[in-house]
Inverse folding.
């Protein structure tokens, strides 16, 4: 079969890899220049900072082995605690191991891309059926796999986006001069009431932050992100920064660089539905199918490939 996988995030790349291993002819089409999708990392001055998935769990031993064999020695653990706001001292899932990729979480995308045919900077518009085939970005395929968040996949399929919701996220990267205490990795506010829902110190990831600096990743709550999504980034970044400094007692005179990222579709809403009634020859993978966790979308890519391979057995 000739198969187009739309999107080079983790789920699409895992799916493509399994399809190729199953003997299929696969092309991955990715709208951006980079691989990994929301498993995203940026160069921030001299630092390397994760702007999407911050860390991941590997609860399933099979997946742990698979990701371990792809990432090798770059698979690292964060041993420092994550605190819950308002309950200082309480450790979030104390026993759970948290992983990251040493040279940037997005490197997982690059590692997975080895041996795949990937066309970058190809934004797929609406796909059209032609007989039993699908026309995608000027070529014909027997099967297509959409791995993007459902609102984007629905657009590609020319159908309704209703029924599956996504939460936006506004993220600020904040650099300060001076050292870091080294006691805690991050703090969360699970209530969603505090505009600062996630504050993490990237220094906890070994080798990411240059000596003499501290870099924080601040993610706004869903409510705050929705209210400020269409505003100019400089407005909400300045607001998040002053809230952060006040709440964490950080000295504003030590400010360095600032960067922002707006995720329109960050994670699927917790109690949302699943897409139904897909046309023949169209498959989905990623968090339109499962929860928005790296481990889950990896599994989803694999399961979608198995379904496609099984359908032709
Ligand atoms: C701010 C943030 C923090 C997060 N934190 C965590 C965390 O700590 N731990 C965790 O496990 N998970 C976390 N997640 C969730 C996790 O990052 C995602 O669930 C996962 O990366 C989704 O992978 P995916 O392959 O399903 O989709 P994506 O990574 O979104 O991949 C889809 C790809 O499709 C491409 N695409 C979209 N439309 C088109 C088109 N028309 N044509 C071509 N290409 C297209 C996109 O560019 C993208 O590369 C976080 C996400 C965000 C945004």
């Amino acid at each position: 079969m000739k198969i187009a996988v739309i999107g080079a995030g983790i789920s699409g790349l895992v799916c493509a890899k399994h399809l190729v291993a199953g003997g299929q002819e696969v092309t991955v089409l990715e709208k951006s220049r980079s691989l990994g999708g929301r498993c995203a990392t940026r160069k921030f001055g001299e630092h390397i900072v994760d702007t999407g998935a911050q860390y991941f769990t590997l609860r399933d031993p099979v997946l742990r082995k698979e990701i371990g064999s792809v990432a090798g020695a770059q698979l690292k653990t964060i041993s420092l605690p994550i605190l819950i706001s308002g309950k200082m001292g309480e450790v979030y899932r104390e026993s759970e191991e948290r992983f990251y990729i040493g040279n940037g979480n997005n490197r997982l995308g690059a590692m997975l891309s080895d041996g795949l045919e990937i066309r970058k900077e190809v934004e797929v518009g609406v796909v059209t059926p032609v007989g039993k085939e699908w026309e995608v970005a000027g070529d014909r395929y027997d099967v297509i796999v959409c791995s993007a968040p459902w609102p984007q996949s629905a657009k590609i399929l020319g159908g309704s986006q209703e029924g599956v919701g996504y939460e936006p996220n506004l993220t600020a990267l904040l650099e300060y001069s001076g050292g870091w205490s080294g006691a805690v990795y991050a703090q969360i506010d699970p209530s969603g009431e505090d505009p600062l829902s996630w504050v993490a110190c990237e220094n906890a990831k070994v080798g990411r932050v240059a000596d003499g600096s501290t870099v924080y990743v601040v993610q706004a709550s869903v409510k705050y992100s929705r209210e400020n999504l269409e505003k100019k980034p400089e407005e909400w970044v300045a607001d998040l920064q002053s809230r952060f400094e006040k709440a964490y007692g950080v000295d504003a005179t030590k400010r360095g660089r600032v960067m922002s990222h707006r995720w329109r579709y960050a994670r699927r809403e917790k109690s949302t539905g699943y897409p139904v009634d897909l046309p023949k020859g169209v498959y989905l993978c990623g968090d339109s199918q499962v929860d928005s966790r790296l481990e889950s979308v990896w599994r989803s890519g694999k399961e979608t490939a198995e379904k496609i391979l099984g359908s032709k057995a």
Summary: The chain has a mean pLDDT of 94. The longest strand covers residues 255-268.
